[in-house]
């Protein structure tokens, strides 16, 4: 399985030349994984540039791992993200990947300050990113939280570099980074090509009070992967958390046309993972179809 390594010496400056180079590399990674025989259909701005994934915890059927991966393929997914909490054995994961071509492209570390175990697992299963959170310590001031979280990520960079794994910061409730501008500054402060953004379309609205397209615009080429959710959607959302202010499409919160426009503007290519209520094969198929619709795939 081919892997992509970001040179440790690469600059984080966001000149147009640097943006174009990183976008091309990211697209090469995403599309190269489709195989040389794959055909790219003519469709929306993101058609042929995004591979669909979901979180392993969304699989509602308790069947053997290989059968779960086969179900993901039938449901329309290309990959899955796992975590240490899932308790999966790397050799079993690799066997399922080999048999189904469902890629385990990343590992979710979450708010754990020590992400070494997640980095090691990611390397073992052939993934390329670990999702991390700049978590908030309520007893600390903002500046102290910022400095502490920077130190946590800096300590993880050498191991991530060793294993060709990128560290992607996500916007969540447990983080002190409540605006897109703060997230961008946090990533840029680290001055490392290993660190990027995991952009969650729903968390931007629920926990930060900014629009999803605003986050997409500000994060720009820092965005490496996407979490797809819309808590305002009647079928795949969460009515209890629906914003009364955000106006999206299909009665939801996310204005998908605007999000697609911002992602296309920076030539986004890569993985998009559903993070909604999962279930059986029928439910997962519906989620994959919904992703096709909102992302115009």
UniProtKB/TrEMBL annotation:
InterPro entries: IolE/XylAMocC-like, Xyl_isomerase-like_sf, Xyl_isomerase-like_TIM-brl. Pfam families: AP_endonuc_2. The keyword Repeat does not apply. This is Xylose isomerase-like TIM barrel. The keyword Isomerase applies. Residues 72-284 form the Xylose isomerase-like TIM barrel domain. GO terms for molecular function: isomerase activity. Transmembrane segments: none annotated. It comes from Stieleria marina. Keywords: Isomerase. It comes from the Bacteria.
